[in-house]
Amino acid sequence: MKKPQPDFDNRLRKVLLCQGEPDRVPLAELIVDPYVMHQYMGKPCWEAKLNERLPDYLDFWHTAGYDYLKLSPSLTLNPADRKPKEGERRSDASDLDQARSWAPEGTGFITSMQEFESYQWPKLNEIDYSVFDRVQPLLPDGMKIIGQYGDIFTFTWEFMGFEQFSYALVEQPELVEAIFNKIGEIEYSLFSHMAEVPNMGAIWYSDDIAYTEGLLISPATLRKYLFPWMKKIGDLCKQHNLPFLYHTDGVLWEVMDDLLDCGINALQPIEPKAMDIVDVKKRLAGKVAVIGNIDLGYTLTRGTPEEVAAEVKQRIKEVGPGGGYALGSSNTVPNYVPVQNYRAMVETCLQFGKYPIQID
Predict the structure, then answer these.
(1) Is the pTM of this model over 0.85?
(2) End-to-end CA, the chain
(3) What is the Cα Rg of the chain in Å?
């Protein structure tokens, strides 16, 4: 299988910074499920086992046509890995999927300042960044790293449970603020370290704040607790001349100006049922690049490869001209995306995404 030539600086970076048209529309995904990687490559590429699979994981991103390798520090912060007080939801591993845990909707495991203070938070000097060193001699020419982490807001409500978090916004604001700030401090430290890594091409912060119908919580709450931390991350990216990508689902117009003030350069994944990507690009032209939008509701998951190819060509035709667009899924690539559909998406983009766009 001939591997496309990565060119982060002249292709993806150019798109992320809205600096006109590169040679072709780049590909971008926050996550591709290991099962899809395995099916695509014919070998395991488990991101969770990078100590064993780093060359194979890198080989997937290169072979599929991406200009970057997404990496994250190794630490245990995800509240879904802990046992909540109520509402625990887990699934067993199967032939198609790893075991999964879902965050509590009711009561989590930090519901008081005493529990917050006694919780064993990760120690910053014990976080493992070794994967960033190990990948350096393996990177193909032209490929860069995107350092990714996220979920300051999401982890906060997951630690508390969403119902408990909602009550605490009124009844225990000091606890909400303490958790937000603790997680924010940890994550800012992660991004500060990643920004210094050789061959770091961009920073990607992920944190879902909206449904398709509206925000999960009020704009005022986001402005008080989350956006100041995102602004710090954005300022860090500016200091290091790194594009700042942001992932969130849902419709975002209520806080779009806030996100711009945080310094984001690119927005992903632009869910089709939440926002019209043509409208988003038009309204944010030259300010923010748009990423994603290939439909997971039907096309990628239940459509045919021919339908996937048709939608990819339509997105390229509608959104590609002028640059500022990277093609990908409308969220991430989960394990239930048929590999032939995933293949149709990336290969159609590589074939028809060349500039100048010439799609009838």
Answers:
(1) yes
(2) 29
(3) 20
DSSP H helical ranges for the chain: 13-16, 34-41, 50-64, 113-118, 130-135, 152-160, 162-171, 173-195, 219-221, 227-239, 256-262, 277-283, 299-302, 305-319, 339-352
Contact, 94 vs 168, CB < 8 A?
no
Are the beta carbons of 35 and 96 closer than 8 angstroms?
yes
Please tell me the predicted confidence (pLDDT) of residue 80.
Answer: 52
| Residue type (1 letter), 98 | Q
The CA distance from 217 to 195, in Å, is 30
Q: Which amino acid is at 62?
A: H
- For 300-317, what is each residue's pLDDT tens digit? 999 999 999 999 999 999
Domains (range + CATH), the chain: 8-352 (3.20.20.210)
Spatial CA neighbour of 311 closest among 279, 250, 359: 359
The pLDDT assigned to 83 comes to: 57
Amino acid code (one letter) for 270: I
Residue type, 203: I
Phi, psi of 212 (to 5 degrees): -70, -20
